[in-house]
From TrEMBL:
Protein's name in the database: MoxR family ATPase
Organism from which the protein derives: Halovulum dunhuangense
Domain AAA+ ATPase: 36-214
One GO MF term attached to the UniProt entry: ATP hydrolysis activity
InterPro entries with a match to the protein in the record: AAA+_ATPase, ATPase_dyneun-rel_AAA, CbbQ/NirQ/NorQ/GpvN, P-loop_NTPase
Length: 303
């Protein structure tokens, strides 16, 4: 476990060591979130590196990462705890087969830690070796409002009450990172609890840095073309704009195909790494790819 960084520069360097390329603005909110113990709410398009921040922070600080993946219909039972009903039933059956079972003792046993299934929120509130964990509440926009309200409460006092067991309180509150792909607006009340940062697509230089960190096998020349093309492609009206994840994937595909530079043919053959919707792929076929490539190259200063 490492101590939390003391300055914004240190935060930036720390994330950098974990392979995360982080601008000043993001480093500032991460630093403040750690220093003030406030949850960090990250919003942005899919594939811009929101989830990765939590992973990088966990790796960099040597803290455990606990992830709550949100989905439609997620409820408190799946987020906090459940009783292991099947195991309880077996225990009851077994006890029934034995004469003179102490019923009171059995009931107590059935609602003990042994039959408790800890879900991410309870896990994050429980004492940990190695300091407070990083709690990643991922893709919050996929849940519904009642769950959001529930979460608001859980995040305000960092404790969970289990009627049969009592209240479990985090000794040191977890470092909370929430993400949203903004398929809907998250409620103001929740946002107010948090520090907020909009994670945007990186500019050319930053995306180059990310490729150097995440796809070092690609040559500088190829990476420059990849980034220039993807940046140009992001200006097109697409159903799903390629994120950083796609740039990395694409660069890796091109390296695997021994491509040294881009050509309209090689782009057409590998579009599936960049665009995941047939309509978008269709749109780019033919002369469009060549035009975009020419425009992307025109923007590249000579290396
Ligand atoms: N700033 C960055 N530095 C390093 N890698 C990044 C960065 N941004 C994105 N990535 C890469 O892009 C991939 C997708 O990012 P992810 O965090 O899953 O996106 P999101 O959660 O925003 O949809 C990650 O696996 C990571 O490798
Ligand atoms: Mg994500």
């Amino acid at each position: 476990m490492r101590a939390i960084p003391k300055t914004i520069d240190e935060t930036q360097a720390l994330l950098g060591d974990a392979g995360y390329v982080c601008g000043r603005a993001l480093a500032t909110v991460v630093f403040l979130s750690l220093k003030l113990g406030r949850p960090l709410f990250l919003e942005g398009e899919a594939g811009v590196g929101k989830t990765e921040i939590a992973k990088a922070l966990s790796a960099a600080l040597g803290r455990r990462l606990i992830r709550l993946q949100c989905y439609e219909g997620l409820d408190a039972a799946s987020a906090v705890y459940e009783w292991n009903f099947a195991a309880q039933m077996v225990a009851i059956r077994t006890a029934e087969a034995v004469e003179g079972t102490d019923r009171e003792a059995l009931t107590e046993e059935l609602f003990s830690d042994r039959y408790l299934i800890r879900r991410p929120l309870l896990e994050a509130m429980s004492p940990q070796d190695g300091g407070a964990p990083i709690l990643l509440i991922d893709e919050l926009d996929r849940t519904d409002e009642p769950f959001e309200a529930f979460l608001l409460e859980a995040l305000s006092d960092f404790q969970v009450t289990i009627p049969e067991l009592g209240t479990i309180r985090a000794e040191a509150p977890p470092v909370v990172i929430l993400t949203s792909n903004r398929t809907r607006e998250v409620h103001d009340a929740l946002k107010r609890r948090c520090l907020y940062h909009w994670v945007d697509y990186p500019d050319f230089d930053r995306e180059m840095e990310i490729l150097r960190a995440r796809a070092p096998e690609a040559t500088e020349t190829l990476s420059r073309e990849v980034v220039a093309f993807v940046q140009r492609l992001r200006k097109e009206d697409l159903f799903k704009t390629p994120g950083v994840a796609e740039s990395i994937d694409w660069a890796k595909c091109l390296v695997a195909l021994d491509a040294i530079t881009l050509s309209p043919e090689v782009i057409a053959d590998t579009l599936g790494a960049l665009l995941k919707y047939q309509d978008d792929i269709q749109k780019l076929h033919g002369s469009e790819v060549k035009k975009l490539l020419d425009e992307a190259r025109a923007g590249l200063a000579p290396a």
